[in-house]
Amino acid sequence: MKKYLDFLIKGIYAGILISIGGIAYLAIENKIAGAFIFSFGLLTVCIYSFNLYTGKVGYILVNKPKYIIELLLSLIGNFIGTFAVGTLMRFTRFENYIETSTNIVNVKLNDNLLSIFILSIMCGIIMYIAVNNYKKEKDVIGKYISIFMGVMAFILCGFEHCVANMFYFSIAGVFSLKVLVYLFVMVLGNTVGSVIIAWYNNKYNVERIQ
Fold it and tell me: Which 8-state DSSP code applies to residue 90?
């Protein structure tokens, strides 16, 4: 029981850190700088070994079936963490962040589900590569570059990250059946993207070129 609680707690912490990255992104007008600072969230998740769904789901192929429980608890924890931070921010002086996040959310909800699914797949591919390179890379600078480049790539490309979007929906205060459907599609797309690239990596035992 304690093990499952640990999965949930680590998921909550990951959600909190991704939310902090999201706040930094909302605070900076320059998109490139904002994407760079957002990377703080994933970097700290990796350093402290917290449970971020998009960073863990690709490893479902090399784990036992019970790993699914860890993934689900991590995802629930991610939602709790992002929802808590997003909701709390609505009680602060950061009204302009709420407006900005609302604009971001509206763009997503006005998109069609096929587009959301495809953009989520692309994000899943990037997240697996970023996290896996962090795990495999022995050089500290290489580890950091993998994270920063990966996060900046998915943000600047406009790809869909389910956990980051949980935060945006939360701070915007926008929740409905439609939002839940869109989040489900984002989770599914991130999962497919991660598994696709993880399958290739596992099948061909890809190693970094020295």
Answer: T
